[in-house]
Amino acid sequence: MLIIAHRGASTLAPENTLKAFILAFKQQSDGIEFDTYQHDDAIVVFHDKTLGRTTNGSGLLLQTPLAELKQLDAGEGEVIPTLEEVLTTLPDGALCNIEVKHLHNAETWVQDVKQAVEDAQINPNTLLVSSFNHHWLAAISALWPQVAIGALTATYALDATHCARQLKAKSINIALDVVNADFVNTAKQAGLDVYVYTVDEPEDMLQLKLWGVTGIFTNVPNIAKRVLN
């Protein structure tokens, strides 16, 4: 079962920062997950719509110029990174789950991500693009059919796997509080990988491993590594 660091090693370093991602790989994570916004000037790695929770700034992320965002302290002196900056931290073969929080132009997004992948010399086969907005995923997939798609869901809907298959998704990424063994079996029989978020308790890690889940998103990859080994 793969260990994916949720926003990096986010209990020991500021979430969605280069420090958190580098630490995640030092802790032997199999990959990282992070959130992105399509900003006017770059694809920015950040979770919230507003700046106040995780930086010393205020206001809306998308209404703040990139140059100003880069001056903010995102915790422990870290800055808000761009997608390309994050990709440069990836070891060879590491899984990279890009969650799309905001998309205003799918064609530009695909061009920018492809360029960032090329510049960082990343194997595009290690990418997994996910979102709760399945319309965005469909648009991205239509423009870039080779990229792996992860359909995010927070509910156990009976048609969740059908929806994921319609998107030609590689995986379904489901919340811990709604996943169960039947769901995992159904999804896997449909040819889907199953990733579960957000898994921080050892007993949950062991249960999901028993069910045959593909991977977990966790804030504590160091603990997950110890428990699962």
Quick structural summary:
The chain has 9 helices and 9 strands.
Number of separate helices: 9
What is the fourth-level CATH superfamily?
Phosphatidylinositol (PI) phosphodiesterase
CATH first level: Alpha Beta
Write out the strand line-up for the largest beta sheet, numbering strands in chain order.
Answer: 1-2-4-5-6-7-8-9
Number of strands: 9
Q: State the separation between the terminal residues, measured CA to CA.
A: 10 Å
Based on CA inertia axes, which overall geometry fits? globular
What oligomeric state best describes the polypeptide chains here?
Answer: single chain
- Could you tell me the mean pLDDT? 96
Radius of gyration: 17 Å
Short key terms for the protein model shown above:
8-stranded parallel β-barrel; alpha/beta; TIM Barrel; 9 strands; 229 residues; 33% helix; globular; 9 helices
Protein model, in words:
- The termini are close together.
- The chain has a single domain (2-172), classed as Phosphatidylinositol (PI) phosphodiesterase (TIM Barrel, Alpha-Beta Barrel).
- Helix 4 (106-119) crosses helix 5 (134-143) and helix 8 (202-211) packs across helix 9.
- The protein has helices spanning 18-26, 66-69, 83-87, 106-119, 134-143, 160-166, 181-189, 202-211, 221-228; strands at 2-6, 31-38, 43-45, 95-102, 127-131, 148-153, 171-175, 193-197, 215-218.
- An 8-stranded parallel beta barrel has the order 1-2-4-5-6-7-8-9, surrounded by 6 helices.
- Helix content is 33%, strand content 21%.
- It is built from 9 helices and 9 strands.
- The chain has 229 residues and is an alpha/beta fold.
- The model has no long low-confidence stretch (mean pLDDT 96).
- Strand 5 (127-131), helix 5 and strand 6 (148-153) form a beta-alpha-beta unit.
